[in-house]
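Honest question from a wet-lab person: if I give you the sequences of every part of a complex, can you actually get the arrangement of the whole thing, not just the pieces? Trying it with mine:
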Amino acid sequence: MTRVTVGYSTCGIAAGAEETYKALEARLATLAEPAELLRTGCVGMCYQEPLVEIGTDDGVRYLYGHVSPDKVARLVDEHVTGKTPVADWLVWTSSGQGTDAAYLARQHRIVLRNCGNIDPEAIDEYIATGGYQALRKVLDAKDPEAVINLVVDSGLRGRGGAGFLTGMKWRFTRMAPGAEKFIICNADEGDPGAFMDRSVLESDPHAVLEGMIIAGFAIGADHGYIYVRAEYPKAIERLTIAIGQAAERGFLGDRILGSPHSFHVKLKEGAGAFVCGEETALMMSIEGKRGMPRVRPPFPATKGLWEKPTSINNVETFANVPWIVLNGAKAFNTLGTANSKGTKVFAMAGKVRHGGLVEVPMGITIREIVYGICGGIRDDRQFKAVQMGGPSGGCIPAELQDTVIDYESINKTGAIMGSGGLVVMDDTTCMVDVARFFLEFTQRESCGKCTFCRIGTKRMLEVLTRITEGEGRDGDIELLEELAARTKNSSLCGLGQTAPNPVLTTLKYFRSEYEAHITNRKCPAHNCQKLLTYTITDDCSGCMLCLKACPAGAITGERKKRHVIDQSKCTVCGECYKVCNLGAIAKD
Amino acid sequence: MHEHRAYNFKNMHFVGEEGQLIPLLQQAQAEDGYLRRERLQEIHQVSGIPLAHIYGVATFYAQFRLKPVGKYLLRVCHGTACHVSGAVELSQAVEKHLGIPNGETTPDRMFSIETVSCLGCCSLAPVLMINNATFGNLSPSAAVKVVKKYQKGERS
Ligand SMILES: Cc1cc2nc3c(=O)[nH]c(=O)nc-3n(C[C@H](O)[C@H](O)[C@H](O)COP(=O)(O)O)c2cc1C
Ligand code: FES
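Yes, you can. This is the full assembly:
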């Protein structure tokens, strides 16, 4: 039977998947020959949403992009009824065709293995792809130490940012004295510009659950928590369904699949605090307190949640585990570089042409991701930098785009691997403004415990703000450097220790932009509003559009005669620039 | 603000599980739209958690509000991807259209504006959320158009 699926995760729904689904439902209902209509998660081609896939009896899967409701009739009539794919709209086929085939062809999918392929609300679809086989395998072997050794051998490092060896963390927790232990899945994903974990939870929640249950078995923990940010209602909904289904089938609960091992999972919703992604703060938050980090050691492995040994891992880390159990350590550690094994999922956003989720083997270059997979820069503009690692990370300039993706190489640039947010910037992005943006974020999100994190970030933000407003002073760059060093050295948790990174990397690679703001009062990227002047050029035809659009009444002129902007009245809002059809407004 | 489930507010058991405070506050806010003083008092009485501690937690987390919000809560994403794709202009446009600054509610209590950092739809930046509906790839004027639909009652 023909199978029609609609990508139905937050990004798809935002792009109109719901309307497309309804249109498909109505159209398919009119057919004589029934077709199956299903909802799946996200394949990662977010730039093509809403996505519809059609699988017919020939065994090939056809993926269509930007399927708005008005395209549904033709799609159903020609492909479902007529059995002829609509070539104009095809973005990918499982036989390697389609305009965007390169996007998926160059990826290596372990974590995203099921994303977009199965209905995340149906446990049977997960099971049909080999789901919960890994759990059965470890329970049958009855050897928790072997599981830990396997994960150590695989070389899997935590995907939440710091990159600690997962197997070692499990070993420490297993060895820690104490009868009661906990597993925590960190699904707080606070890095603005990252959405890997959301997508995995929405598209394949059982993979994460299975990874957690296996971890529980390996460590000797009967209870697990998943801490999800409240901004992800769809992920929470799907996880709740998945937990219920897994319990019904005996994968969760007491004496799992007849073994002596038990495991229970509770879902905890975050309440909007970035610092709660930090492991000790997260545990405070689960305990119902203000989420403020504490000194480590003791590490969570010995004293974690409710003072009990706790192993905390990221969503993506867990999603790797069932695959490793089924395919072996070797299959995993032959991928990647000497110290970074396996794959990494990146959330591609910003000025890149094809934004979405990509999973690549470690060791690939930034250039291959941006140009080879994601189609380069939008509107063919100039590639300027990528921001990696969010507020803790930094900007890697285009000159270094041949840097390979592995923990150590990325650290060398001054950025960090981070959790996988990769925001691409072009020549219209002002790097001083980017640094200011991140400092505004960390300053706001600092819990206030450490002086330099609380006040140092505030002072840095003030300096950066005045630079972007054309009020920069001599010595500001040096002041930033000093504050950055002190904040790094005297903060207790990763938030403060890494908060200066966005400033330090932009100073390292884009110092001349800072100098242009301070010395010449100019923003080379033409982004900082206060440093711009708009003027009208000879191309003006006197159409009066800008004159009408100007909210400040700063533009004068007569019909068919060149207009002028009164600079003393201009508020630099840019409305004239946007409405002009002739490009007759110059921005400098 | 999705539907809440699971437990009955009044019959909560607090056997050593102080961890229930945040879920309780979330439930209270889901029901009332914000944290009413009386509700916090009630939580204190049921749980025995000191009121100062409850306020401490309620003011720490960005999700909790001590003031009522409008019927429609506009959350403008100011995450990294949205920031480099014009979130500032988008905010300016909706603030100007509704005549209120960020963080405020219109006098008729229909709309409130908040900024948030990342809604997880970064590839559709810039993004705006109205209650539970997400809108992506918005220009400032497209955002205003969306808001107008809510004002005319074409969407709810
Ligand atoms: C300020 C701050 C925010 C963090 N946010 C997250 C997060 O959102 N998700 C995450 O998995 N780890 C986050 N971490 C890292 C965690 O502290 C912890 O290292 C991680 O969850 C461990 O999992 P892993 O070993 O699987 O990477 C954050 C750390 C800091 C300092
Ligand atoms: S940055 Fe706006 S949705 Fe992520």
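Two things worth pointing out. The longest helix of chain A spans residues 315-333. The first strand of chain A starts at residue 3 and ends at 7.
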